[in-house]
Amino acid sequence: MTLEAPSASTYTALLALVAQTRALMDAVVATGADDEEIAAVTEELRALTERLDAVRRPPAEVGEPRWLMGNAVVGAANPFAPPIEIEYLPGGGVRAEQVFRPLHEGPPGLVHGGVSAMVLDHLLGTALGAVGRGGLTASLTMTYRAPVPFGTPVVATAEYTRSEGRKSWADGRMALPDGTVLVEATGLFITPSWFPGEL
Ligand SMILES: CCCCCCCCCC(=O)SCCNC(=O)CCNC(=O)[C@H](O)C(C)(C)COP(=O)(O)OP(=O)(O)OC[C@H]1O[C@@H](n2cnc3c(N)ncnc32)[C@H](O)[C@@H]1OP(=O)(O)O
Description:
30% of the residues lie in helices and 24% in strands. The protein is an alpha+beta fold. Strand 5 and strand 6 form a beta hairpin. The protein is globular and about 60 Å long. The relative contact order is 0.13. Bound molecules: decanoyl-CoA (MFK). Decanoyl-CoA binds next to helix 3, strand 3 and strand 6.
């Protein structure tokens, strides 16, 4: 059985499910429960998974109202998404403030470099979308200057830099609130021929 696009009330219910699932994921990462308790919880989760998996919603199309709900960075319906809330800056560019969690760990106590790349990739793409230059990442170059901490706010920003035909570039970075730069990214995005004109 397949659902139509979720209604507003289903969407609200999904948000609650996702928030609870994020809490579950954090608990799984940190749990010190004994073997028996872990096995019992796993059995309950297996049953819950089967119930949710019994009905699937259709995949989203680019540009439809809820097309980013499953997105791994900003998706309201995706428990894996931190999620990042992106602010569009008046002078152009985008900004997101984020507190990463132990779920995003790479080296002990620090955020995984791939998570930083994922977040900055999305932010660069959003900065390009904001100026009508939406596209897919063709290359992404990361420079890691200092470890990204979790449990404390980190500020990510990005902006469009230039275009040549279907190719566009954007720069971005993650910094501590005092401006100390931790990670820098530059990306080339290409607008495929099938992309909608305005994103
Ligand atoms: C508002 C909401 C915003 C949401 C933001 C979302 C951000 C998330 C971004 C992503 O994560 S996207 C997912 C990861 N990326 C991909 O899956 C892309 C996979 N690759 C492709 O689909 C195609 O390779 C691509 C669309 C990027 C390019 O295919 P095309 O067939 O359009 O390229 P084509 O071969 O015609 O080349 C066009 C130009 O780009 C150049 N080019 C292509 N791929 C390149 C590459 N990888 N690196 C450098 N240059 C490249 C190519 O040389 C050429 O240059 P010139 O015009 O100067 O001759």
